[in-house]
Amino acid sequence: MTWSKKNNSNFRTETVAGGGLLSRRNFITNAATGSAVFLPMSYAAAESFEGVPETWLTKGGEFSNYGMPPDSGQHPIRWISNHPAVPGEGVTWTPHHQLQGSITPNGLHFERHHNGVPHIEAATWELALHGKLAKPTALSLNDLHRLPMHSETLFIECGGNSNAMWRDQPIQTAAGYIHGLLSCAEWTGVKLSHVLELAGIDPDATWVIADGLDSSGVTVSIPLEKALDDVLIGLYQNGEPVRPSQGYPARLVVPGWEGITHVKWLRSIMLTDKPLMSKFDSVSYTDLMLDGKFNRFSFVMEVKSFITQPSPGYELQQKGLYEIRGLAWSGAAPITRVQVSADGGSSWTDAELQSPVLANSLTRFRVPWNWTGSPATLLSRATDSLGNIQPLRSEIINNKGGNSYYHYNGTTVWSVDEQGGVRHVYI
Amino acid sequence: MTWSKKNNSNFRTETVAGGGLLSRRNFITNAATGSAVFLPMSYAAAESFEGVPETWLTKGGEFSNYGMPPDSGQHPIRWISNHPAVPGEGVTWTPHHQLQGSITPNGLHFERHHNGVPHIEAATWELALHGKLAKPTALSLNDLHRLPMHSETLFIECGGNSNAMWRDQPIQTAAGYIHGLLSCAEWTGVKLSHVLELAGIDPDATWVIADGLDSSGVTVSIPLEKALDDVLIGLYQNGEPVRPSQGYPARLVVPGWEGITHVKWLRSIMLTDKPLMSKFDSVSYTDLMLDGKFNRFSFVMEVKSFITQPSPGYELQQKGLYEIRGLAWSGAAPITRVQVSADGGSSWTDAELQSPVLANSLTRFRVPWNWTGSPATLLSRATDSLGNIQPLRSEIINNKGGNSYYHYNGTTVWSVDEQGGVRHVYI
């Protein structure tokens, strides 16, 4: 797919930063003046349906109980990266280079499974609450359904998302296959704080150990303070029951924190006075720092952004006006600003943020851009309301060293050549 | 499915209105005191996985390019009501009695097709802009993609939704099959105002005539004032390209207005100085009033709500605490209040509204309820920020007469009997 094949845009434009970035106002007002021709007068009698293929106007397809996208080869799909010998071990990537807005449809939500999707019977499933509680108990799905529910639109990002950015050379692939272990949905469930309070929290409890029911034994330690703040026992995703591939009948939803904490096929919540130091606490999702120590329990996914369009695979077919679009998020605080540069960071302009901007959600940003046909170097940089600013890649490498595999939140740069080709580069 | 089979909740509760309605605070604080037993101490060693079926712990299912819900017979589906002789003529219903939150997943978004789903090639599709414009033109999908995009979370409700409520006797079916021609999604597209301004609007243009490409010839007249306010050329639904069943490659999205104006498979936008008075303007979606005249062009979907849980088909299996949940919306202004009654309207309590409350979106409401085992009569009543209050059914029948088929926005009442059965009643 390309953005356009017709050479029909010759707006007069007014630059507000280097490289042809415009204010959104310019895009509309300049083009609306008589001084610019928008498009050729090529069509004047559409109501006749002249030229419409007969096949478009015959009786159409029937209804279905559950709608699916077309099997046309055109609709976005998730790419799969899995272990050759263990088909259920791996990931699927959300194809952000082909999506718009901020919600990820359930069929395209990323997955990270360690040993496939277990089949769980909801009728006999229970969630155990035990450890440092006055009244250890078990809740059935029906029990959970009677309790007060809460909904929030939240991103989930794997701690290993964007790990290719730690490599010495920039990988050449689509934006969704660099940053696609990231999705956003409206999650509905019961507040973990509520069920823990009902069960009576012992005064010396400080940690929650969450166990999933898949055969790879995912067990994660989460500070009780977070559990009592905003963690959900997630039962619904974008309105419908959580699917098996997302943790049916229940998954933990831990706003703003790394994906591994969002334990799927939730089986057990145990309160303790120390972390378990499971392999997911102590080996995976830890970062080797410059001083030779490992950073554990980083949890919060830090402020980050990238440009989704244009991006590798989406070539510019003509000079003229485009809209640069991307996603920004922070697990620490709501996004307050996204700056975009078309000249490799020499100058920046503020992008428009899709409203409402929600905490721990993806924020879509957009800025108009007049591509003159010269080479351009595009990147975005996000800021959250705590003043955290997304680092340049060079800054994160300098600060953390190059030995990490997880938690990359630096910038991503796309280089546009004179033919409109887009490549991933480091600057 | 039932809400619970175990008799394990005997909270001490404090009533804030008739019929056992509680404040949300009561639900949590009362239950957390030592005076009430939450659940029996039946589970104390979950980490052993004792009793977990072997099949749950074996290697799980593999990845897929596009995720689907399970084929278990348990996952919500749309019911289909179609013409026996014309399978593509009819509707599918969103099963709101089985959903939570406010977003409708794309596979469960309602549909109303007049002659099935046409197959349209995006590569040769164009949107014609003509009539009273300085520069009539045609836009390809690539052209549209280069223009500034805008996203909003919006409900779409068919003007004929809830038409069973006009019948003399209450129909006995699930809530989703009474009110399910209603869904909510994040829509992304290009503002119609933008492309019309680029094409140069003639000073005497006052109406927009929108044509769809399906063979039933859906053509709708919309005041230019609305088109310039907030109408979108919708290209993406919950992040992914609009599916064929929802109007691919483009549909009109007309915030807060009746579904027929959201023309699917959009082909042509013509500016005129009068409405076309197509059959969809002048015959369908009009209401015969008490004075013998037809009300046309009502457009705005007025303030409305209904309770999704409990509702017919979802029986209460035991006395005790529940959460009453439902949906409220108004095409006129944001929802500011939803009142719930458990005693047929003698007393009311305010429900909690899911935040953020967005204009022209579905708003989830929730209120805790202690069911004592006595018969109860449940209903909800919504108010928007313009002060519009949802009428009781008796009020709407008195005001509009009983000859309408469209635009029912009165209350819906569920009767709970001593066995916990739930039926639809008129009061």
Keywords:
mainly beta; Sulfite Oxidase, Chain A, domain 2; 7 helices; disordered N terminus; homodimer; globular; five-stranded antiparallel beta sheet; 427 residues; 30% strand; five-stranded mixed beta sheet
In the predicted model, the low-confidence regions of chain A spanning at least 5 consecutive residues are: 1-15, 25-48
CATH class of the domain at 126-275 in chain A: Alpha Beta
Oligomer: homodimer
- Globally, the shape of chain A reads globular
State the strand order across the main sheet of chain A: 5-4-13-8-9
**What's the story with the biggest beta sheet of chain A?**
5 strands, mixed
**What pair of chains forms the biggest interface?**
A-B, 138 and 139 residues
| Fraction of residues in β-strands of chain A | 25-35%
Question: N-to-C terminal Cα separation of chain A, in Å?
Answer: 27 Å
Tell me the number of strands of chain A.
24
Task: Work out the radius of gyration of chain A.
Answer: 24 Å
Model description:
Two copies of one chain form a homodimer. Chain A has 427 residues and is mainly β. The first copy, chain A, has a domain at 126-275: Sulfite Oxidase, Chain A, domain 2 (Alpha-Beta Complex). Chain A is built from seven helices and 24 strands. Chain A has helices at 24-32, 141-146, 176-179, 192-199, 224-229, 279-282, 393-400; strands spanning 79-82, 90-93, 111-113, 126-131, 137-140, 149-157, 182-191, 207-212, 219-223, 232-237, 240-241, 251-253, 266-272, 287-288, 294-295, 304-309, 320-329, 335-341, 349-350, 352-353, 363-371, 376-384, 413-416, 422-425. In chain A, strands 5-4-13-8-9 form a five-stranded mixed sheet. In chain A, strands 6, 7, 10, 11 and 12 form a five-stranded antiparallel sheet that branches. In chain A, a hairpin with a 5-residue loop joins β23 and β24. The longest helix of chain A is centred in the first third of the chain and has 9 residues, at 24-32. The model of chain A is unreliable at 1-15 and 25-48 (pLDDT under 50).
